[in-house]
Structures are given as structure tokens and as C-alpha cells.
Amino acid sequence: MKLSTKGRYAVTAMMDLAIHDVTGPVTLADISKCQGISLSYLEQLFSKLRKDNLVEGVRGPGGGYRLGKPASQISVADIIKSVDESIDATNCDGKADCNNGKPCLTHKLWTDLSEQLYVFLDGIKLNEFVNRPEVREISDRQDTMSSRIATMFPPVRPAVESRIAS
């Protein structure tokens, strides 16, 4: 099974969103900054996640994204499927045509593995994962680092800009 960056990034972004969802909508720019994922790539992923109602957009000042349903109802498998990733360990995409149109010797093994992977990932809900101590520790460290960077480079105010231009 190959889980591409698309699936890994989608799960990471959804984890970040779930952790910060209690404080209100989260911008993709914030997720991008904290997780090191390209903003344009996040926009593509969130378009797919929005279509499957895993996230919803909030417009206006203070807007961003929030979970489309409770974290207890979103599994890692849901996220991976939403961004068109496959949880399939076979070489034939499960079609059983790997050996000249027929199943290969190990087809059943890889099919069974794929099913086990799906069951495993479907059993992991966002709320369970974000409450793990090691996940919280990493999130707290990222939040601290992000706030330090924000205070190092405060936004330029219009009054300051006009004095700089003079």
C-alpha cells in the first residue's frame, strides 16, 4: 500500500483542524504555517474534504474552516477516501487481474491486508487521536513556535506604512 503525500497531508491538516476547532474556525494559512504544507495544496485538499462534508467553510472576518461533523464521527479512513486515496495493497487495484487477467498467487493476501488496513484506519476517530498525550504535546509546541514567530514579525499597520514611505 502506498499512502501518498495527499493522504498524509489531508490527515495532518484534519488533525490540526480538529485540535483547534474548539477555538473557532481555522484558516488554511494557519494550517499551512504550522504544518509546513503548501497553501495551494491545502486548498485542493479542502475542496475535496468540503464535498464530503468533512469540513465546512466559514466566511467573513475570523472565518476559515471547521469540522463538518463531530470529530467522533470522522475516521482516518474517511479522510483518506475523501481525497481520492486508495487503501489497497494489491498491485491490481483489487481487480484480481494481476497475472494475465487472473489473480496472482498472493492476491488474497494483499486483499486481506487491504481490508485490515481499512478496518484499522476506520476505527481511528479524530477525537481519539487528538487527545493522545503525544499529539497534544506536539500541537502545543507548534502553537508556541507559531505565536513566537507572529510576535517576531508583527503586521505592519497603515499608519506605520505611510511613515515608512515618507
Tags for this model:
Arc Repressor Mutant, subunit A, 2 domains, 166 residues
Protein described:
It is a single chain. The chain has helices spanning 5-20, 28-35, 39-51, 76-82, 107-122, 126-130, 133-152, 158-165, and strands spanning 55-58, 64-67. By secondary structure, it is mainly alpha-helical. Helix 1 (5-20) packs across helix 3 and helix 1 (5-20) packs across helix 4 (76-82). The chain has a two-stranded antiparallel ribbon with strand order 1-2. Residues 148-166 have low confidence and may be disordered. The protein has two domains: 1-85 and 126-154, Winged helix-like DNA-binding domain superfamily/Winged helix DNA-binding domain (Arc Repressor Mutant, subunit A), CATH 1.10.10; 87-123, no CATH class.
